[in-house]
# Entry
Amino acid sequence: MWWNIAAQHRQEFGDWHTHEHFPERMAIPGFLRGTRWADIGGGEGFFVMYELDDYATLTSDAYLERLNNPTPWSTKMMPHHQGMVRSQCRVLGSQGSGIGGFALTLRLSPLQGRDQALRAHLDEMARAFVRRPGGVACHLLRTETPRAAQTLEQRIRGGVDAAADWIVVMSGYDADMMLALQRDLAQGDALQLHGSGAPPVCGLYRLACSAAAS
# Structure
């Protein structure tokens, strides 16, 4: 998920998200880990990723019960999530393991008939990333939204959330390397040459909080 939080709400947002929201989500069966990342330049953007043990967790009774019964504090904070992009994904591939201090995310879509070419290029990019100094792990995800009715949390946020298509998450520990890679990906045309329909939506974030079910 990606969203913006205005400056005047950021302190309360961090308190709520760390001390209520993450523990609530981690108590749901099937949730393994959640990470929150803040815009590396101090802007309003956040990136949040939940890792689940099974795709079916997305439509489990326990998860939907929480989405439709937000706490009073959640009800207060949800309207401040601006520009929400929420993608429920399957993992197409992963290279490396662990979590670095920085996450570079790419949101992109393949041209019609170029899925295999783009997938091959992204797989090679992931292998190269985890071998370079500063790289930790790289994951390729594809949005697959499950069939489920709109939840109360979504209605509080103002309606249907936007969604990405294909997503690349690169985690690393060297800020300078990650910044240079962000510039290269944002300014270059390699992804489009290999089948991406448009330049990727690219964001770089620092790790703010990590929570595990255990």
